[in-house]
Specification:
heterodimer; A: mainly beta; five-stranded antiparallel beta sheet; 58% strand; B: mainly beta; four-stranded antiparallel beta sheet; 0% helix
Chain lengths: 112, 112
């Protein structure tokens, strides 16, 4: 079945440093979504990318969808302690946009 | 607008018992999905309901079942509990025609 791989699994940074997490799917995706889960919390939707090569920005966060629609990345500029959490990518599977396969996530910790 | 509400927040059961978890979606959301989250396997899709019909199903044994009521509220049931069923069970809702998920806080199930 479809697999969604995320790297790295963990990333520890000093506050102010940049951070990037990468997501790769074994199949072409119609769209990709990103979620953030704070420690002890639940996943919160960040963004959805639909178009090949799409780039979207949300303040310090930049999201990219690859040209082949099989990979994506999330880049955070100048991390802050509020960025701590696990970042997940997710893509539709089984021919349905309502059945998501999530990557294992990247846990980001930030040293103040 | 109230978010997705899941009850109970915590459950402790013993092997062989069964359990029912409840989810109330955001008002107006007709799609309800369930995910199992464990440290080892991450977020795994269980099933998705729309207008009282199961529209998508994940790769879980038949011990896992669910249903959706006419008011869009949903329940999931796990019968003959096993130790490996210990997990955070997350419910998520979405608007018709939109794929982004709004997650509840989850039910933490511990099977002893």
């Amino acid at each position: 079945g479809q697999q969604v791989m995320q790297i790295p699994q963990y990333q520890h940074v000093q506050e102010g440093e940049d951070f990037t997490t990468y997501c790769n799917s074994s199949t072409t995706l119609s769209n990709i979504q990103w979620y953030k889960q704070r420690p002890g919390g639940h996943p919160v939707f960040l963004i959805q990318l639909v178009k090949s090569g799409e780039v979207k920005k949300q303040k310090r966060l930049t999201f990219q969808f690859g040209e082949a629609k099989k990979n994506s990345s999330l880049h955070i500029t100048a991390t802050q302690t509020t960025d701590v959490g696990t970042y997940f990518c997710a893509g539709p599977s089984g021919g349905s946009n309502y059945k998501l396969t999530f990557g294992k996530g990247t846990l980001l910790t930030v040293n103040p | 607008k109230a978010g997705v509400t899941q009850t109970p927040r915590y459950l402790i059961k013993t092997r062989g018992q069964q359990v029912t978890l409840s989810c109330s979606p955001i008002s107006g959301h007709r799609s309800v999905s369930w995910y199992q989250q464990t440290p080892g396997q991450g977020l795994q899709f269980l099933f998705e309901y729309f207008s009282e019909t199961q529209r998508n199903k994940g790769n879980f044994p038949g011990r896992f079942s669910g249903r959706q009521f006419s008011n869009s509220r949903s329940e999931m049931n796990v019968s003959t509990l096993e130790l490996g069923d210990s997990a955070l069970y997350l419910c998520a809702s979405s608007l018709a025609g939109e794929e982004k998920l709004f997650f509840g806080s989850g039910t933490q199930l511990s099977v002893l």
